[in-house]
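Translate sequence into structure tokens.
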Amino acid sequence: MTLEQFFSTPAYQVEKERDLFIMQEVIERMADEKPLQGVSVVFGHLIVMNAMTIVEALWRGGAQIFPCSLFHNASMDALCAELAEYGLPVLPIAEAARQGDIFLDIAGALGQIRTPRAAVEVTRTGELFYQEINCPVISIDRARIKHFEDFMGTGESFQRGWRQLRPDDPLPGKRVVQFGYGKVGRGVAYHNRRAGMDVTVVDISASARQRAAAEGFNVLEAAPTRTLQDALASADIVLGVTGVPGAVGRIVPAEWLRAGKAVLTVMGYDEFGPDIPETEILGGRMPINFCLKRPTLNRYMDPTLTAQALAIEELVRRPEGYPPGIHPLPAAIDGWLLDKWRALWPDEDLTGVEAELGIG
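Result follows.
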């Protein structure tokens, strides 16, 4: 069986047609123009069905694809096996990293193995790694459209992940101590408050704490104080959303996290660090929404998924414009995606994120 046949399967067609309208347009253009002929791409991504639209866009654009699963959970196994049947085996990370010219990376996992010709990095965590790597990198995390995924989509998906893993433990009324109030943290806090939770924000940044307080949240400094210890002891949920691996574990000792009845979980990778074993974290070291077949709803993922394909095309078409270092997604692409998304979803309530999107 061939990859063309996979893209014709009903399961994939249904996924592509489920709110991924901008990506559909780009896939059609890539098929016509073939801008990626002769390029090989290591696809380091979640192996979930909506992410396969990036694979189709790149493949129809002429690229050779080497997929690997940087973060694994059991829900991905069936799709990984299916891709192998259609001639696209999901490789071990180290093997995939040796193959391609361009990396599509999450959390810098591929870049830590080998320096590519160029890379597209999706996360802030990965930017920290790529700052030390001598290659051109387009950061999706810096784009305005990433706020759809981070603020709107990821905030919503925390609750879906919780309901899947703890279906008999309702969230309304729970006391949440949340470490981190960046793009993702703000969205998670907003959505959890809307769902009836009492949210206390903990952040190392004074400006982030000021913003959280101005936006109506309880706020504590990220320091090992008695006040924070008491908050952790009385919490129902302790949630890491800093975007920095091990950050929570460097702020408070592990015994404080274990002292009360709180469920520990994360929306950023490995927030608690090595002193808290994976078995004590709901969903493990990966973000809790990664347990879902659709970690973020497609309507919020559409611009971000499309941006990743367009960023790879940009690196191929205009290599002279990208010397080694971290670069933002070009403003023209970012603006086009924003305009397209707003035209598709004009009634979406973007309260809390208007300023970041430049639409206030």
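Note: The domain at 148-291 is CATH 3.40.50.720 (Rossmann fold).
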